[in-house]
Amino acid sequence: MRRRADCDGGSPRLTGPLLEDAQLTLGAVLADLGVGLLRLALIEGELTAGRLTQPFDQMLDTGLDYYLWVREEDPPTEAATHLAKWILAECAAVSAAPGAMHAERGRRSA
Fold first, then answer.
1. According to DSSP H, which parts of the chain are helical?
2. What is the reported pLDDT for 100?
3. Could you tell me the pLDDT band of residue 109, with boundaries at 50, 70 and 90?
4. What is the DSSP string of 78-105?
5. For the chain, how long is the longest CA-to-CA vector?
6. Where along the chain do its domains lie?
7. Residue 87, CB-side half-sphere exposure with 13 Å CA sphere
């Protein structure tokens, strides 16, 4: 009887290349060398253009976020404030762009 690795506490056997670089993984997938798990932000354009497909609706929330910190005892400089506003504006523009995919609105499969 075959058992799934995640059900019996074992580890799956890796049979093939395991690429640690997202760009290498993307290149390999685009060259039809296999499948890859990649960040949506990296492949959104490829999905929209139809060069990649997302076979499942499942998404993995890695919990990885970006933070901009300043020390309490050192108020942000004008340049730091300008940078923070620019970053927020860029994020808002990307989020509002036509074809943007977000968990809140559901993800599209190409």
1. 22-30, 40-49, 78-96
2. 58
3. very low
4. HHHHHHHHHHHHHHHHHHHSTT--BGGG
5. 66
6. 22-105
7. 10
